[in-house]
Design goal:
The complex is a heterotrimer of chains A (317), B (514) and C (364).
Chain A: H1 3-33, H2 40-58, H3 65-90, H4 95-118, H5 144-149, H6 154-172, H7 174-184, H8 186-191, H9 196-222, H10 234-244, H11 249-268, H12 280-299
Chain B: E1 3-14, E2 17-28, E3 32-36, H1 43-50, E4 58-63, E5 66-68, H2 73-78, E6 81-84, H3 96-101, E7 107-108, E8 111-112, H4 114-128, H5 143-156, E9 161-165, H6 173-188, E10 192-197, H7 200-206, E11 209-214, E12 217-223, H8 229-237, E13 255-265, E14 271-281, E15 284-289, H9 296-304, E16 311-316, E17 319-320, H10 326-331, E18 334-337, H11 341-345, H12 352-356, E19 367-368, E20 371-372, H13 374-388, H14 405-418, E21 423-427, H15 435-450, E22 454-458, H16 462-468, E23 471-476, E24 479-485, H17 491-498, E25 502-503, E26 510-511
Parallel strand pairs in B: 3-10, 3-11, 6-9, 9-10, 15-22, 15-23, 18-21, 21-22
Antiparallel strand pairs in B: 1-2, 1-4, 4-5, 7-8, 11-12, 13-14, 13-16, 16-17, 19-20, 23-24, 25-26
Helix pairs in contact in B: 13-14, 14-15
Chain C: H1 3-28, H2 33-45, H3 57-82, H4 90-107, H5 112-141, H6 145-168, H7 188-193, H8 203-219, H9 221-231, H10 233-238, H11 243-269, H12 282-292, H13 297-312, H14 314-319, H15 326-339, H16 341-352
Helix pairs in contact in C: 1-15, 2-3, 2-13, 3-8, 3-11, 3-12, 3-13, 4-5, 4-6, 4-11, 4-12, 5-6, 5-11, 8-9, 8-13, 12-13, 12-15
The chains are: A mainly alpha (317), B alpha/beta (514), C mainly alpha (364).
């Protein structure tokens, strides 16, 4: 693999990484507050669908349509995640079953609405998604410029910013301390006067926001429309990134980059000598296979928030 | 002195049970007021209401003469009420300081001002004589230091009324005396203390007044100085209680269990059991005592096969079982009454009958050619229910989950005794049980001893060890630091050994430099 | 409410709520719920309320073939679930089963009495193998089965396509050459009595699977140990049971059920191997079936038929202007409501509990 090829791959890899990082950070908020969120896949789908739809509907009215699409995707994700919050927190549902149901629901609901709005099982294609740009000045730096600052999607920078914001909120603020307490030992948090249910709602809704944003980013940078297979498991890959990244924002950044690169590889395979002979399906399989291997190496060692996934019963002592 | 707290005609219901039934409690300022009752009597519930974790279904609460509604722990804290819980409510991977300030964090802008928090923690700990390391993580510090963190949580919030829920369960006798001293000092500084306990000795030592609860109802409130332990026990249980199990002398025979140079790792990967040797003979009860976390768990896991040992030998009669599977060991005559009846002893979602056959469900007559024989399983269950007086709502078909703790434990004991192993490993057999159940279990243990079985009794309750055992071994830091005759030792001596200050192998005791 | 009654009432409430929600969504988007229900009725029986057409056995046949694979994937999920495992891998195991069936169908020449059982066996083993992998990872390395099985689903899809396209070759890039009749579950007899539906002998393995499920779980020592591990892994280990082996066996059996579903589709409904564009949802259908059926054999049979009918009605709904996805929405809502059963139970108990609470239960 030549160096030149690696440089070319970077922007594409970063493009694929951004939605994974954003969604995984969302999962971090949810799980750190104690709620396992398997529904990230469904939330991404809802965000992607909304983002694509809003962009199509607004593109004749404003050049910033895609940005409204991102915002809409974020909000749609929040609304959809309310379902998971109510089911898991108020109605004490098994969080994995609830999450799985929501994933199925998202698929059905988004395509149903496509049929209603566009009379087909996908959205109409939009002409302009989020546009690439080059950072003035920085893009001229040799090597680094081509990797990070030239012809890059701004959504990647949004993802990086979120990593830092997440780190700050979770580890430095009182809100973060209380949230983590709810995920490790909700009874302890409750005995200190913290409203565990409210904290968990916060965690789940933030995961809805970031997951919805991640889905919208994915469709508006890497695709031209939303279909049932637009997300194809990226929500689960984000979940694996969370484990891989040990529930830590910077770990998630690293894991997201790793998966972004593995996805990008399929596009450049034909240019890499020893990979060129492999069939296309091999590269489709690669990210999923790597996810399993990553989990294998990190599942035993990394331990998530202690009380994540347990139904919090205020009657229990 | 005036009543600083009054709980008047408090009633609290949970599904299917009335936990507090018209209870009136009046606490005097600057006193130590004990709340006595068996497990399930309602004392923890009552105090949880005072701390705002529950809401009463009836009755009212007055603090300093004014009626209040304590809707959550924040309100309780603002009234100056604090609680040290029996099961510590500490976040294991937070630091001491983070646990103390949780919910009331000092801020510098949007960020937590951790420096000033640590400073305040140091100040308070010095004032009350509660030594802690503000930067240490909870998972790394000792249990008694964890308890001090629990106390500091209250003092950080300027609590004046301090509730202690069964605080001595995890302490050595020496640490218990220290805690008593801390309590007296707190009262000197103007605090009022509510002590929830079922330990009569401690009440006699430190409390001024004692209120006794039984089955959710108030039995009475007595001045401690004028009431003896027998009277308090009678109030607690409702009848005369014998504290000591009746037993004849032990007649030990051949050695049935011999452990040689055993090394077992704990969950952190360090050695929990270090080069340990022990022997138990037929017809005797060897009690193993020690502070929780000194290797008992790892020792039991190594003997039973739940954990693979690093090195050493375990002889059951004359066979080394150290590398055999759990099943092979039980088949060779090793019985185990596990520490946690709900986690290890029973499958709560199985019926009582199904639980009885968990060791041999695949053997005749319970199964033929891999097909379960429901009839013989039922008959077996009915027999055991009769012989061991196990009570349950629907007999053999009762889901184990629906049975009381005492009967669950009886079921496990029944199952293990029925299999007639040569060696019993009995761990914490009476935890959480009421006096009647405790009497029964102790009686059965002695019966099995008299039938010639070898029994290793592992318990954190010193009274139980001293009462039931013939010989006592003390474990400290993964090693046996002393083996004594039960009749010849004292609580004080055991306490010293348990904290590592004394070693007693055979002849003269040697003091160890702390 | 007793547990017995709970097991029937709560799923029924969930089903009801799911349909109510679906009707609401249909109405809110300007379509007719009545048309939806008419389509459902027709999907089950051919009975056309709106146009007055009588029961048509063709529809009955078609709804049965829709029910068959999801009963099997339902058994797959339920079996793993009873053992304490949350396996979403039925979709992938089904695809591998389908691929194995295709392989044996195309490569082996033998009379029906040998060929067909061999095809089914290949599917069962293929599915079991695909279940073994996540089972092993869970048992040995404690890797949580949820994400692994989902990844395996995607891998299976691409693997299937790779084999179909590059190894067996496909003229139209959609399907393989047709299978010889000796490999098929198809039955001209059954087709003739159901007016040319695709009804086939597949229902026999399905019924056998239901019976085997019931028998193994409830009557055998193996089932006893699986249930023990599922309810309380630690207690089972303490009693000497080999927990890891149970986890692996359980995932393999769950995979076997799903693999069989693949065969039922490939050599029953169809007679060729197919390139799969995206997951067809049999796995998730199975989860819905299992949850509504309370993870019990008889419940799964009923739930499978309910959801099978719903699926059969989809094209009919589409032709009435109601997007077919509404069936998936209803199904997902039902699963969601089943998941909330504790919450629903809490609400129901509040209505029921009028009497004074009893005092403390039995003491020793």
């Amino acid at each position: 693999m030549t160096f030149e090829l690696l440089l070319q791959m970077f922007p594409i890899a970063l493009m694929f990484s951004a939605p994974i990082i954003l969604t995984a950070l969302g999962g971090l908020f949810s799980e750190r507050s104690g709620v396992v969120n398997i529904a990230l896949e469904g939330i991404m789908m809802v965000g992607a669908f909304t983002g694509a739809t809003v962009t199509v509907l607004l593109e004749n009215s404003t050049p910033a349509a895609a940005w409204y699409g991102l915002l809409a995707g974020l909000l749609a994700g929040v609304v959809f995640s309310i379902l998971h919050a109510v089911a898991s927190i108020n109605l004490k549902a098994d969080q994995v079953i609830s999450g799985t149901a929501l994933n199925i629901l998202a698929g059905g609901l988004t395509v149903y609405l496509c049929q209603i709005i566009f009379h087909q099982q996908r959205t109409r294609a939009f002409s302009n998604g989020i546009q690439k740009f080059s950072v003035p000045g920085l893009s001229d730096i040799p090597v680094l410029g081509r990797m990070f600052f030239k012809e890059i999607y701004p959504t990647f920078y949004i993802a990086i910013a979120m990593v830092f914001i997440t780190w700050f909120v979770v580890y430095k603020t009182p809100l973060g301390l209380r949230m983590r307490a709810c995920g490790e030992h909700p009874q302890a948090a409750a005995s200190m006067g913290i409203n565990v249910a409210k904290m968990r709602y916060f965690g789940v809704l933030v995961s809805g926001a970031l997951g919805g944003l991640g889905g919208a980013v994915m469709v508006l940078t890497a695709d031209i429309q939303y279909t049932l297979v637009s997300i194809h498991g990226t929500g689960f890959i984000s979940l694996a990134s969370l484990v891989f990244g040990k529930w830590n924002p910077f770990g998630v950044l690293g894991a997201g980059l790793f998966f972004g690169f593995s996805t990008a590889l399929s596009f450049y395979a034909k240019d890499i000598k020893f990979l060129a002979g492999l069939p296309g399906e091999f590269f489709y399989i690669l990210p999923y296979l790597l996810t399993i291997i990553a989990l294998l190496f990190f599942a035993g060692k990394s331990v998530g928030p202690k009380a994540a996934g347990e139904i919090y019963d205020s009657g229990k002592r | 002195m005036s009543h600083i707290v009054e709980m008047l005609h408090i009633t609290k219901d949970f599904p299917g049970i009335r936990a507090n039934d018209d209870i009136t409690l009046q606490i005097e300022e600057k006193s130590i007021h004990a709340l006595l009752g068996e497990n399930g009597a309602g004392k923890s519930t009552l105090m949880s209401i005072l701390f705002g974790l529950y809401q009463p279904d009836g009755g009212s609460i007055r603090v300093r003469g004014k009626e209040v509604k304590i809707s959550d722990p924040n309100v309780a804290t603002s009234l100056g009420i604090g609680m040290v819980h029996q099961h510590f409510k500490l976040v294991h991977n937070f630091t001491v300081t983070e646990n103390i300030i949780l919910g009331m964090e000092p801020r510098k802008g949007p960020v937590i001002d951790i420096r000033s928090a640590e400073k305040k923690v140091e100040e308070i700990s010095k004032l009350y004589g509660l030594a802690v390391d503000p930067r240490a993580k909870i998972e790394d510090i000792s249990v008694s230091m964890q308890q001090r963190v629990e106390i500091l949580k209250m003092l950080y919030r300027d609590a004046e009324i301090l509730i202690f829920d069964e605080p001595t369960a995890v302490l050595t006798p020496q640490e218990i005396h220290e805690l008593m001293q801390i309590m007296r000092r707190l009262v000197e500084e103007g605090k009022t203390i509510l002590l929830i306990t079922h330990k009569l000795k401690e009440i006699k030592e430190v409390a001024d007044v004692c209120t006794v609860l039984r089955r959710g109802k108030l039995v009475g409130t007595v001045p401690v100085a004028d009431t003896d332990e027998e009277r308090m026990a009678e109030m607690m249980v409702g009848r005369q209680v014998s504290f000591h199990v009746e037993k004849g002398p032990a007649r030990p025979g051949e050695e049935l269990l011999r452990i040689e140079n055993l090394n077992v790792k704990n969950v952190k990967g360090l050695l929990g059991v270090k080069n340990l040797s022990l022997s138990v003979r037929a017809g005797e009860v060897l009690g193993l005592c020690g502070i929780d976390g000194n290797g008992q768990t790892e020792l039991v896991q190594g003997i039973t096969g739940l954990t693979k040992i690093e090195s050493g030998k375990i002889f059951l009669r004359d066979k080394n079982i150290a590398n055999l599977s759990i099943k092979e060991r039980t088949d060779l005559g090793l019985g185990h009454i596990p520490e946690d009846r709900q986690k290890h002893g029973l499958v709560l979602d199985f019926t009582l009958g199904e639980n009885f056959v968990i060791h041999n469900y695949y053997e005749k007559p319970f199964a033929n050619y891999s097909i379960l024989n429901k009839k013989s399983i039922l008959e077996n269950a009915e027999r055991l229910i009769r012989e061991f007086d196990v009570r349950s709502g629907q007999g053999a078909m009762t889901p184990a989950r629906a049975m009381s703790g005492g009967n669950q434990q009886k079921a496990i004991v029944a199952r293990e005794i029925d299999r007639s192993p040569d060696v019993f490993i009995v761990v914490q057999p009476t935890r959480g049980l009421d006096v009647g159940a405790i009497e029964y279990i102790h009686k059965r243990i002695i019966e099995e001893r008299d039938r010639g079985k070898a029994i290793l009794l592992v318990s954190l309750e010193l009274d139980e060890i001293m009462d039931v055992s013939d010989r006592i071994a003390v474990i400290y830091n993964g090693e046996i630091v002393g083996i004594v005759d039960a009749a010849a030792t004292t609580e004080n001596e055991l306490g010293l050994m348990m904290s590592g200050a004394l070693r007693k192998t055979h002849a003269a005791p040697q003091a160890v430099h702390a | 409410m007793t547990t017995r009654k709970e097991k029937i009432v709560l799923p029924l409430i969930a089903v009801l709520l799911g349909f109510v929600l679906g009707s609401l969504i249909v109405a809110l988007t300007g379509r007719s719920p009545l048309a939806m229900y008419a389509a459902i009725v027709k999907g089950f029986s051919g009975l056309d309320i709106l146009n007055g057409q009588p029961i048509n056995s063709r529809y009955i046949g078609e709804f049965i073939i829709q029910a068959m694979p999801i009963i099997l994937t339902g058994l797959s999920f339920a079996f793993a679930s009873r053992t304490g495992l949350f396996s979403i891998g039925a979709e992938g195991q089904l695809m591998i089963g389908s691929l194995s069936a295709t392989t044996v169908a195309l490569l082996v020449r033998a009379p029906t009495v040998i060929h067909l059982p061999l095809v089914l066996l290949a599917a069962i083993l293929g599915g079991a193998l695909w279940g073994l992998i996540p089972g092993f990872l869970k048992a040995r390395y404690n890797v949580h089965e949820v994400v692994v099985t989902i990844m395996m689903n995607y891998i299976a899809l691409h693997l299937n396509n790779f084999v179909i396209l590059h190894i067996f070759g496909s003229v139209d890039r959609v399907k393989t050459a047709p299978f010889p009749a000796s490999a098929l579950l198809k039955s001209p007899f059954l087709e003739s009595i159901t007016r040319n539906s695709r009804l086939n002998w597949g229902f026999i393995p399905v019924i056998l699977a239901l019976l085997i499920f019931y028998f193994v779980i409830n009557k055998t020592t193996f089932g006893y140990s699986l249930r023990a591990v599922g309810y309380n892994k630690e207690a089972a280990r303490c009693a000497g049971m080999k927990v890891n082996r149970n986890i692996i066996s359980s995932m393999m059996i769950a995979g076997a059920f799903a693999g069989l579903a693949g065969a039922v589709i490939t050599v029953g409904t169809f007679n060729f191997g197919r390139v799969i564009q995206s997951a067809e949802g049999y796995g998730f259908d199975g989860i819905a079936v299992a949850l509504v059926g309370g993870n019990e054999a008889f419940g799964i049979l009923l739930a499978g038929m309910l959801f099978g009918g719903l699926k059969a009605a989809q094209p009919l709904m589409q032709s009435q202007g109601i997007p077919r996805e509404i069936a998936g929405i209803i199904q997902a809502s039902i699963v969601l409501f089943v998941a909330m059963k504790f919450g629903i139970k809490m609400i129901l108990d509040k209505f029921e509990r009028k009497q004074a609470p009893t005092t403390e239960g039995d003491r020793v």
